[in-house]
Amino acid sequence: MATATSTTAPKPAYDVLRRYLKRNLPVKLTREEQTDIAIAAAKQRLEIKQLEGDLDAEKKRRQAQINEKQREVDVKDRELATGEQERIVSCDEIFRDGMVFVVRTDTWEEFESRPATAQEAQKFLPGVESTLNTSPTDRAAPLLDQAAAAQGKAPANDDAAAAEPDGGADAEAGDDQDDPESEDDGLSEQTPAQRAAAESAKARKARRAKGKTK
Questions:
Q1: What are phi and psi of 100, to 5 degrees?
Q2: Which of 214, 183, 188, 187 is nearest to 201 (CA)?
Q3: Residue 32 half-sphere exposure, CB side, CA atoms within 13 Å?
Q4: Where are the domains of the chain?
Q5: Tally of CB atoms within 10 A around 144
Q6: pLDDT digit string (tens) for the chain, length 214 residues
Q7: What is the DSSP secondary-structure string of 39-92?
């Protein structure tokens, strides 16, 4: 605070009881003092804006922390209310009647289903050759094996034929004898099962011939 250092008013005559007392009293400002005050006020205004920005950023950060804690509390409240907690559970997808069902392996409960895609459905279509250790009369066996069993013939085992080279010619001869196409005199029409068995036998014969040429 500026202090009065000089005055033009004449000093009155009085008896002094105490000297140099300090009091805050209004004093006229000079032009230079007013300029200095204006510059200092402008700087302080800038500092206030910076502090307000810092305050907003801090409030947002603290509010985000509060929101995160609130979400955690909400999850715990829901778990207490329902008596259940979400966890990672191993599941299986099973195919049935053109649909894919998701089954949890801890309780074996189906909880989700959707139509199977064409690629997924194709994996479960009956095959044309035996790929599983199933009986030809089993309903799960491929259609052509079932057809061959219905005609009184067992499905051929390519691996066994390859392991017995001496019997390859005999097996071929047997295939020729059992081939329904060779016995077809044109007088009787083949059933779908017979045609399927004939195609299966022809495919096996072609694979054996290809293997011998190698």
A1: -110, 125
A2: 183
A3: 1
A4: 32-82, 91-123, 143-182+190-213
A5: 23
A6: 455 555 567 777 878 888 888 889 999 999 999 999 999 999 999 999 999 999 999 999 999 999 999 999 999 999 999 999 999 999 999 988 889 999 999 999 999 999 998 888 877 665 544 444 455 455 555 555 566 666 665 544 444 444 444 444 444 444 444 444 444 444 455 666 667 777 777 877 777 776 666 5
A7: HHHHHHHHHHHHHHHHHHHHHHHHHHHHHHHHHHHHHHHHHHHHS-------EE
At 102, is the secondary structure helix, strand, or coil? strand
Map tokens 């005050």 to a residue.
Answer: 37
Helix (H, G, I), strand (E, B) or coil at 4: coil
pTM for this one? 0.37
- Residue 127's contacts (CB-CB under 8 Å, 6 or more residues apart) are 142, 143
